[in-house]
Amino acid sequence: MTGVLLAGALLLATLSASPSQPASCARNDLLSIQGKWKTLQSEHWGKGLPKNDVQQVGERVERLGRLFRAAYPEPKGMQAEASWDFRGSARPYPYAFTTLYKAWYCNTNVDKLMLGDETGTWAYAFVNHLNWFASLQKDFQVEGRPVFLLTPRAGELKGRTAYAGIHNERSNTGEKFSRAVLVSRPGRSPIRPVTRRAFLEAFLAHAEARERNALASYDGVALDPARKAEKQRRLQASYEHDLQPVRDRLKALSAQEGSEPAILGPGGVASTDFASEQKGGRALVFLDRQYFDPRLRPDVPQFVVVYWRWDNNVPAQNFRAEFERNIDLDAIAALLDR
Question: Is the pLDDT of residue 63 over 60?
Fold first, then answer.
């Protein structure tokens, strides 16, 4: 059995034949439709990596897959499919185990039960990378380092903090939900909070750089010198009007307040408004490179983000309830560093 195909004991055969049709499918209990698991061809983007490393990742993914399948062993009203792939060639290797769940539904136009060909119900194990757990702030750095914005806290799951994820929305295609949990070494985390002082200093530095660039943009403009100078003066006055309160705030910041985590409001890094996590604030964090142990093989999981999302239909809600009740986060933690 190779890890690349996730065959054998991990995944079952394809879903059985279409369920029998009642007189009106609208009266059918969707959860009475027994589904099974099947495998998809693995999309291992590990081309160019050592063959043994790819095999090792595949075997590690099988262990994660067994835990995911145990969390939802008998799909009800759904077809479950699984695959895995690499997410880059950095060390340690970032890779993901992915499951999707297609729901049966009643097509009232033809009064027939049908299996959906699209779904918003998925579950993932993101290994050694944050993915949707946190958003990289592409045009904003703190102390010259990349920073990430977490999604809001959303309670707990089995003693670990749960986060909202990014798939909570309502649209013309329906309502969707998501949650995420970070599984890391006991007492340690691969993310480290940015302090309020560090954030405000970075905010000020970025704004001052924009001011310099805006003023310099007039250098090549063919304008009367007096008119150009006036435009630059007004532009600088506008920037200074916005930036002086930030400078004053930094000067007045106590050591205690300055060391507190930067929990940002709805404006994110574009605003200096802080918020509380209880009111939907989002933590700004670094990825702590000191967390990673370079002595371990590159295929070894050093942290895992468990991420699941679901549609607002009966089978998907049942999946969500079973997955949250049964997923063994401690068993996932036991896979780290081994």
Answer: yes
